[in-house]
Amino acid sequence: MIFNPAYYLALTFYEPNKKIGFKINEPNGPNEPDIIQLLKMNPKITQIELANQLNLSRSTIKRMLNRLQQQEIVIRKGSNRNGYWTVKE
């Protein structure tokens, strides 16, 4: 019998009350470094422009930006319409 991983199921168990953590001040998604790079290149870029350039939905970009803001990697300054993004080094 030959082992073929395509026909097997992998399960991952975790403790329900234990939070799954991530490193603070580091991007943790596959597209977050790309978002950070685009924000550095164009601080006035919109969520829709980010979504179009990265081929993602606007809601995904919004979720990633919220996560980056919570981690204090990016900061939104000014109003929603006339504001800009700053990236902490």
Multimerization status: single chain
What is the topology, as strand order, of the major beta sheet?
A: 1-2
Structural class: alpha+beta
Using only CA atoms, what is the Rg?
A: 18 Å
The main pleated sheet reads as: 2 strands, antiparallel
Q: Can you offer a commentary on this structure?
A:
The protein has 89 residues and is of the alpha+beta class. 35% of the residues lie in helices and 9% in strands. It has 3 helices and 2 strands; from the N terminus they run αααββ. The protein has helices at residues 32-41, 47-54, 58-70, and strands spanning 74-77, 84-87. The N and C termini lie far apart (53 Å).
Short description:
This protein has about 90 residues and is of the alpha+beta class. The chain has helices at about 30-40, 45-55, 60-70, and strands at about 75, 85.
Spell out the blueprint of helices and strands.
Blueprint: H1 32-41, H2 47-54, H3 58-70, E1 74-77, E2 84-87
Antiparallel strand pairs: 1-2
